[in-house]
Structures are given as C-alpha cells and as structure tokens.
Amino acid sequence: MSTEEKVYVGSKPILAYVTAVITSFQKADSVKVMARGRAISSAVDIVEVTKRSFMTDINVEDITIGTERLGEEGHERNVSTISIKLSRPKK
Amino acid sequence: MSTEEKVYVGSKPILAYVTAVITSFQKADSVKVMARGRAISSAVDIVEVTKRSFMTDINVEDITIGTERLGEEGHERNVSTISIKLSRPKK
Fold this sequence. Notes:
CATH class of chain A: Alpha Beta
Structural class of chain A: alpha+beta
Oligomer: homodimer
Helix content of chain A: 25-40%
CATH architecture of chain A: 2-Layer Sandwich
C-alpha cells in the first residue's frame, strides 16, 4: 500500500471533501488535495478541518502552488492552483 | 540586509499587493505573503502574478498553513491561514 490518492476540490460543502480525504486514506498512504482559483481557500479549510477534528495524526508533507492556462484559444486566462500533500505515519 | 518583510492580504485588488511585494523586496531579502480565510486564494494569485509578470527570479521557499481562532469570547470561530515565504537569490 504505497499509492497516492487525489481529491479535487470544487464547490461542494467542505465536509464532502473532508469525507473524501478520510476515505482516500483507507486506500493510500498519502492524499493530495488539489484546487484551482477560488477553491484554494476551501482546500486549506478542508486540510485544517480534517487534521483538527478527524485525523489528528496526518502531516502536511508538501504544499505547491502554480498557474494553469484555462479556456479556449483566444480566450485563455491564468488560474492559480494549489496542491497539498498529506501523509499518515505508518503504524 | 537580511530582514524579512510581511505583506498582509485583504480585500484590495490583487495588484495593490503585488506592488507591496515588489516594494518590500527593495528593503529585504525575503517577503512573507500572509492571508486568512477567503483571502487565501488571493495570496496565491498575488505570488503567481508577481513571479510570472514582475519578478521572475523570486522563489517560493516555504508555504505553511494553519488555523487561528478569531472573534470574541463565546463567539469564536476557526479561520484558516496561509503564509508564503518568497526569497530572491543574491546578486
């Protein structure tokens, strides 16, 4: 069991993604929480709520930010991204 | 010159903070971009715009996230925070 799961954050309520993170940790040692644009704030909320209230043993291993070009040709725009890698110590 | 400047992100337009980051680098080797709650997405935008369009030589050295308790006694709430440390290689 050394796979990595990914959770993409959209516009659902925070707790929907918290549940997704918890479920993902049943299948993998590490989980990446990914978000774009306005959902970046939610991604940080999801990680903080998961750590504080549900899985106090997880660690934030790495956080990276970047830019993606979205949209059709001639109407492209830049969108910021975040990727927060979480891991859980093995028992 | 080894001081660190801080830029606190609020609800002004992105470019106001981009300017603040650029100005801060005239006084210090590293700049921390700090934000809470919904402003977290803006903080990432500010760093990405600064790096891409104004100061292509800066590095994202460290990103940390956390939680702060805000509000008066009996009405406290948790707010997520981000701190993005930027540095510029010495010439």
